Amino acid sequence: MPAFLTAGRLRAAAVAVVAVVLVLLPLVSSPYVNYQVTTMAVFAVALLGLNVVMGYAGQVSLGQSAFVGIGAYVAGYGTLNGWPVLLSFVVACLLPAVVGMLVALAAARLRGLALAMVTIALPIVGTPVAKRLSDVTGGSQGLTVSWLEPPSWVALADDQWRYYVVVLIALGVFLLTRNLVRGRVGRSFAIVRDNEAVALSMGISPYRTKVLAFTLASTIGGASGFLYLAVVQYTSPETLSFGTSINLVVAMVIGGTGSLVGAVLGAVYYVLVPVLAGQLDASRTALLSGAVLLLVLFVLPGGLVSLPRRVHQLLTARRRRSATTPPGAPDGQAGTPALTSDGVAP
Amino acid sequence: MSYFVQLVVDGLATGSVYGALALAIVLVNRSTGMINFSQGALAVLSTFVAYAVVQAGAPLLLGLLVAVAFAVVLGAFVERVVVRRFEGGDANTAVVATIGLLVLVSGIAGAIWSYDPRPFPSLFPNATLGLGGVFVSVRSIGTTVVIVAVMVLLQLLFRFTKLGLAMRAVADNPSSAALSGLPVSRLLMIGWGIAAGLGAVAGVLVAPQLFISPTMLDFTLVYALAAAILGGLDSPLGAVVAGWFIGVVENLAGAYVDVIGNDLKIAVPFAAMIVILALRPQGLFGRRTVVRV
């Protein structure tokens, strides 16, 4: 490899290429493609939130869809009642945050299954509640809105304008979360995930850390709900259903747990798989999803994001094996697969 | 009064179904320490097998037997091929793995039988019994009786047979069971098989009411999980009693408390669960465990 191709420069080049592609993409592609890519950005944010609590802090949450749903409803209600967009956005983040924190204050004392059950309650109870509050939520019909049209001074079509707005906000959320999980907060998440007793002995309260993780996850989920309404212009109880929550967990694990890039890959998977499966047979989506998830858990526990590393690992292991007789198992992620990956790099 | 008794008996019947599935969850949890989120999906797939047998012209009872046999094999197969890999590993990964199974198994049912709900024949006549001015449906009584009978059989199996003793030993302490020469891995397969068979019975009994579809037991599973937690995850008796409790309470609350109504019934078990977990984290019948670090 030439000397000027250092890892840092390669990374900078990759970021530049991605940035250019992101800026140019909506200008050259069809409204349909723009819509799909924007939806990926929306779900990348939702998965990022789930990743904060499940991947980084190691607490099972099966209720992420509830926060996405609340965020979308707030944005819809705000639009229909003529709130300024900024106010809608702030409330769409704050209300889920408050709900998430209240639930976490009660649930963070529990662990494992009990925690999973309390978080399941959010979408399961949330769906009938959303139908019941039909004055605010439009009941089973849902809310249809028409907003976020490009201002007159911008010569962009609806889909292009929404793309830029959504991708920009999504990038902002990713940047903030990145700083958070790489810093002190991220380290406290990691230690609580790995060993609560050690966390306590270091003066980190596992309880407070978990509540913080849940609150962050629900805030980010609310933001993605706002973005969801911006793209789809419609929301219904389906958005916060249990099925959506399960699919979010599936997509997050497939993308890569405890990884920012994993959240993006998971979102690409989340959006693309129904499209691809729909071309064969729509009723096969679940079949495909379940099979892919189990396959990933078996051969690629770190998710899609770990694919390059895993391939590299297998190749070097083989090279070493052909060179010398190996002592026992191959290095790296052999043995029981763990959801924890190296997302919180020092 | 008559209406009240009716509500209670119907609640006991649905509660029995929750209890049966909760018992399956407890069996799996006791032997492998895992929570099987796919317990409902496995039961639905087995119920579809009964449906196929009935469609082929055979009587429902035969369908039930075939479904249970199928479920036992399916449960053992799933344990051996998929679940074993995640036993004793990271708990979150295990949860995700059984969620993957849930998606996959209901996906299989959906791909074969589509997602439209279909009517399913009942084992019991659609009649009501009058006892001193109180009318209760035969179906509710039948469901409760069958499930109680199955549970008694299971209890006999665990208490009075060598197989049951061996399974209890494995649940109690897998490594010392292995050291005493028990075939631990085979016993775990049998445990999963029995749990899946129990699920199949519950599925066939509840299918006439819910109409059979791949998502038929999604809500029942949630109730069953709540019952398992309420009763304490290591207590079979607790799971059953909690199942009845949830079935009766949600039925009464749905009927008598206006705010709750039929659509918000599902909030009742969660409210009960949260209250009980706050007061007694090990569940009503569970044993407190001490974790050494």
Mean pLDDT across every amino acid position of chain A: 88
- The CATH architecture of chain A can be named as Orthogonal Bundle
As a percent range, the share of helical residues of chain A equals over 70%
Number of strands of chain B: 2
Given helix and strand content, the structural type of chain A is: mainly alpha
Quick one: overall form of chain B?
globular
**Domain module count of chain A:** 1
Summed up, the helix count of chain B is 11
Report the major sheet of chain A.
2 strands, antiparallel
Low-confidence stretches of chain B: none
Q: Greatest contact pair? A: A-B, 46 and 46 residues
Number of strands of chain A: 2
Reading side by side through the largest sheet of chain B, how are the strands ordered?
1-2
For the termini of chain A, the CA-CA separation is: 26 Å
DSSP strand content of chain B: under 5%
Strand portion of chain A: under 5%
**Average pLDDT rating of chain B:** 88
Distance between the termini of chain B: 55 Å
